[in-house]
Structure formats: structure tokens, C-alpha cells
TrEMBL record:
SUPFAM superfamilies: Porins. This is Long-chain fatty acid transport protein. It is found in: Cell outer membrane. The lineage of its organism: Bacteria, Pseudomonadati, Pseudomonadota, Alphaproteobacteria, Rhodobacterales. Keywords: Cell outer membrane, Membrane, Signal, Transmembrane, Transmembrane beta strand. Residues 1-20 form the signal peptide. It comes from the Bacteria. Belongs to the OmpP1/FadL family. The keyword rRNA-binding does not apply. Its main location: membrane. It is a multi-pass membrane protein. GO terms for molecular function: long-chain fatty acid transporting porin activity. GO terms for cellular component: cell outer membrane.
């Protein structure tokens, strides 16, 4: 089985979480660690979501317009062997992210609301091969996060009985300073090279931050505090195996501990009586399955499907999605020591309901989708 088909499995697998549960984007794949010899890769993705809803109780019948901005993702990796048993990899990705921007002037209750969450991670991994086809891998991850939000509909009316309302009607906004944290990665893999078989299980630890936060609201302007944020722990099971000459079956399961994730700045919690700026009720399981086929010495193709269960309940107005289904296609062109893989993925976003204060449901989001396009260039040397 050639590495060209395996390259497409890696691209489609990493794309499977580009619009997944929570604010998952990269899937934290470590497939570069299993490449042969000395290897480097660069990847770029562009995602165009269309996520819109209609008010139910808050602003009945009013349409939100598309509330998700287009975004790009970038990744890179370098892998090399130390000796026959030891190898290492350095991987850069953008594991978590959000880009929310409700249109203004629509009359929708959340009009003008915006939110961003950015992250960058650098992971250093070491792998040790054992004589029985098993290997173990592990390392550290250094990760940076930064977030901000403006939510005009979260405010407070004048109230002479509440002396803490110093700026009645002021819209809520928050800015979290850039913070860096450290976590770890640990895993095990089994390989059978003669049939291109590999099964790997990788644990990614949570990473904790104390984020210096500045809030503006009806309760005060420029109020500083510290917000505790933990990006979630996760577990990736990835597999591939040859099933016929020049044909590869691949897939994976990713569990992410989103039920333990929350962002709850002090003023926001006070204004919403204990509400969270962003949180999730359930953990998320993301599944993918695909097949790749080498056509000739230079071209290979692959297709995969993805699935994430809808959990029900209410979703956040900053992330009104619940599960998804997807279809992805990819092709790889290889020549000498270079391989170029391109892929496109269509995502059918699961329907969701949101709430706002006592308005439940506040809005319904239905029939939404996204298109993702990715390119990966790999070099062996």
C-alpha cells in the first residue's frame, strides 16, 4: 500500500472535525508521526459555513441571517528518525476556534452579537517502536488561546433598588487576554506494514488557563477579573488497513470531553443569573469511515463519510448546532518525493434550538450546512 493513499486518509480524517461539536477544528491528529523517513508537510483549509435561524419566542419569525463567518485553518508538521526504534515529530495546528458574527439591523434578538475564539498549539512527540509491531508515543503540547465577545442583548434596565447597575442599557462585552498553557499527549499503536494496517489510540490531556478578563456591561465598565478555562481532554482512535490490492479502508472515532468545558466571566454570570458565556451539556463522539484507491503511479483518490450524533436540548446562541453528517472526496498527485493532496467536504449541520433568558426556545436553526476545502503538501527527504 503506497503512502499516497495513506496521505488522503490523513487529510480526510483531520477534516472530519473542521465543523464538529463544541469548537473543535483540527481533531488533533498525529498521523505525521507515522510517516516513513524524514518528512515535512503543510496544510491549508478554507471553511464556508451557512448557519441561520428564525426567532421563536424572543423575536418571533425574525430571521437571524448567516451568523458564522468563513475561516481558514493552517497546519504543519516535521518528522524524523533518531534510530531504528526512536522517531520524533513536531506538529503545529489550530485545535479550537470560533468566528461568530450576527448581522446588524435584522431585528433579530441577537443582532450585532460577535464572538471569536482562537488557538494555536505546538506538539512535540517521541515514538518508540517495539519488536512486536507495537509502539508507544507521547509528548507535550504548548497551546495558546485568546477570546472575545460582544452580546448586545445581554444588558440591564435602570433599577433604583439595585445600586450595582451603574450603566443601564450598556451592552455586554468581554475580552480575554492571550494565555498559554501546557498539556500532554500519550498513546499506543499497532502496525502490520505488509497490509498497510495501523491502529492508534491517543489521549490528549486538558489544558488549564487563568485568563485575565476585562468586561463592560451595565454593572460597570473595564471591570477586570480572572476566568478559569479548560480546553477539553480527548481521545482519538484512528485506523487504516489494506482490504485489496491498492485499496485502503480507514476511519476513526474521537471523543471530546465538552461537558466539562465552560467560559463563565463574572459579570456575564451575574447578569444572566448563573449563565455561561459558552458551555455544552454533553460530550461529543465524532465518527469517520472512508476508502482510498491508487489509480496509477501518480494518482490516488479517496472518499469518506462522517457522523456526529445530535444530542438534543438547547444549544448556545454562539454555537447553534447539534451534530452533523458529512461527505468528503480527495485526490492525491505524487511525483518523486512530493505529494499534493486536495479534498472537499460537505457538512450537513444538525438542527438546533437556542434559549435566551426566559425565552425557551428563543430560536430554531434548521437546514444549515458548510463546505470545507483543504490542501496538504508533503515532502520526504
Amino acid at each position: 500500500m503506497t503512502y499516497r493513499v495513506i496521505a488522503m486518509a490523513a487529510l480526510l480524517g483531520s477534516a472530519s472535525t473542521v465543523h464538529a461539536g463544541g469548537i473543535d477544528r483540527s481533531g488533533q491528529s498525529i498521523t505525521a508521526l507515522f510517516e516513513s523517513g524524514r518528512y515535512a508537510e503543510f496544510s491549508l483549509g478554507a471553511v464556508s459555513p451557512n448557519t441561520s435561524g428564525v426567532g421563536v419566542q424572543a423575536t418571533p419569525g425574525v430571521k437571524s441571517g448567516n451568523m458564522t463567518d468563513n475561516f481558514f485553518t493552517f497546519g504543519a508538521a516535521y518528522k524524523a528518525d533518531i534510530n531504528d526504534q526512536l522517531s520524533y515529530a513536531i506538529i503545529y495546528d489550530q485545535p479550537f476556534g470560533a468566528d461568530v458574527a450576527y448581522d446588524t439591523g435584522t431585528g433579530y434578538f441577537a443582532a450585532g452579537s460577535t464572538a471569536t475564539f482562537d488557538s494555536d498549539a505546538l506538539t512535540a512527540l517521541l515514538r518508540y517502536k517495539m519488536p512486536n509491531n507495537f509502539s508507544v508515543h507521547g509528548g507535550i503540547r504548548v497551546q495558546r488561546i485568546e477570546a472575545s465577545a460582544l452580546i448586545p442583548f445581554v444588558t440591564a434596565a435602570p433599577n433604583p433598588n439595585n445600586p450595582f447597575i451603574t450603566n443601564p442599557g450598556a451592552p455586554y462585552s468581554v475580552k480575554g487576554d492571550q494565555e498559554t498553557g501546557v498539556g500532554y499527549v500519550a498513546g499506543v499503536a499497532y502496525e502490520k506494514p505488509e497490509i498497510a494496517m495501523r491502529v492508534s489510540l491517543t489521549y490528549n490531556s486538558k489544558i488549564s488557563y487563568d485568563v485575565d478578563t476585562t468586561e463592560n456591561s451595565a454593572l460597570g465598565m473595564g471591570v477586570k477579573s480572572t476566568t478559569e478555562v479548560d480546553t477539553p481532554q480527548s481521545l482519538n482512535l484512528e485506523f487504516q488497513t489494506g482490504i485489496a490490492a491498492d485499496t485502503l479502508l480507514f476511519g476513526g472515532v474521537r471523543w471530546t470531553d465538552w461537558s466539562s468545558f465552560e467560559i463563565a466571566p463574572q459579570q456575564y454570570a451575574t447578569l444572566t443569573r448563573g449563565g455561561k458565556l459558552l458551555s455544552y451539556d454533553d460530550d461529543v463522539y465524532s465518527y469517520s469511515l472512508g476508502v482510498g484507491r491508487r489509480l496509477n503511479d501518480t494518482w490516488s483518490v479517496a472518499a469518506s463519510i462522517g457522523y456526529e450524533k445530535s444530542e438534543g436540548g438547547f444549544s448556545s446562541n454562539l454555537g447553534p448546532t447539534d451534530g452533523n453528517k458529512s461527505l468528503a472526496l480527495a485526490a492525491t498527485y505524487s511525483r518523486d518525493n512530493v505529494k499534493i493532496t486536495t479534498g472537499i467536504r460537505y457538512i450537513n449541520i444538525g438542527d438546533a434550538e437556542t434559549e435566551a433568558g426566559l425565552a425557551s426556545p428563543a430560536a430554531t436553526f434548521e437546514d444549515n450546512d458548510a463546505v470545507a476545502i483543504g490542501v496538504k503538501v508533503g515532502f520526504t527527504f
